[in-house]
Specification:
By secondary structure, the protein is α/β, with parallel strands linked by helices. It has 9 helices and 8 strands. Strands 5-4-3-6-7-8 form a 6-stranded parallel β-sheet, with helices on both faces. A two-stranded antiparallel ribbon has the order 1-2. α1 crosses α9. Pfam families: HAD_2.
Length: about 250
Amino acid sequence: MLGLVRYLRKHFIMLKHVKQKGISYSMKRSIKTGAKEHPTHIPVHGIVFDLDGTLTLPVLDFAKLRSDLQCPQGIDILEFCNSKSGREKEMAFRMVEEFEEEGRQNTKLQPGVFELLTFLSQSGLKRALITRNLQASVDQFLGLLGHPDNYGGPLTHLLTREFTPAKPDPAPLLHICKQWGVHPKNVVMVGDHLNDIQCGKDAGSVTVLLNDSKNGDFKKHADFNVDCLNEIATLITSQERFSVDREASSSDA
C-alpha cells in the first residue's frame, strides 16, 4: 500500500509539472465534415495489454526463432507454422513451444506492473490481456503476480493464441470490447510489437507502444509512445480524456 501511495503521489507531482510546462500528451480525433474539422474527445473505459515485452520484460529472441524455423522476414511466425502440414507443422510448433518454455524460465515482471494495474483498477478502468503465447505463459505470469489483491483484482480476460485468429488480427480485441460492452474507440491497446499496434488500429482503438531497444521502427505506427509502464498512468491522469488523431469511422459519426 505504501508503494501505491508513493506511485500516485509521484504521478500527481508529474501531472502538476506537466500542466505548469504547458505540455499536452493528448491528441484529438477529428471528424471531418466538408472543410471543417470538429475535434471529439474519446473517453477511455478499458486497457488491454500484450504480455511478453509489455507486462513482462522482453526475453524472447524472435530473430533466432525465425532463423531456426527458416521463416522469411515479413511472414508472421504463427502463420508460417500453420502453412505447413503433417510432420513439418508438428515440428514447427514444437520448436515454437520449446522457445516459449525457455522464455518462461527467464520471465520477469516489467517494473511498475503492480502499481499500474492497481492504479487502473482503482480508476475504474477495465483491464485485460491478449498474447500470442500459450496458456502456460499466462499461468507463469499470474504466478509471478501472486494473489489478485496484489494488483487490484483479476483481469477480466486472458486470451492466448488458442483464440483465433490471433493478433495482429483485431478479432481478440473486438471480442473483449464486445464482452465489456464498450466501443473499441474507448479502449487502449498497449504492446511492444507492431502486431499489437496493428491489432489496436484495425479494431479502432487507441494504441500505445512500450519502447525498447529493438522496436524503434514501430514508433511511428502507434498513437502514443512510452518508455515505461509508469508513463501510461501519466497519460491517463494528465488528461480527462484520452484521444487520438484519426478520422472517425461511419460508426463514430
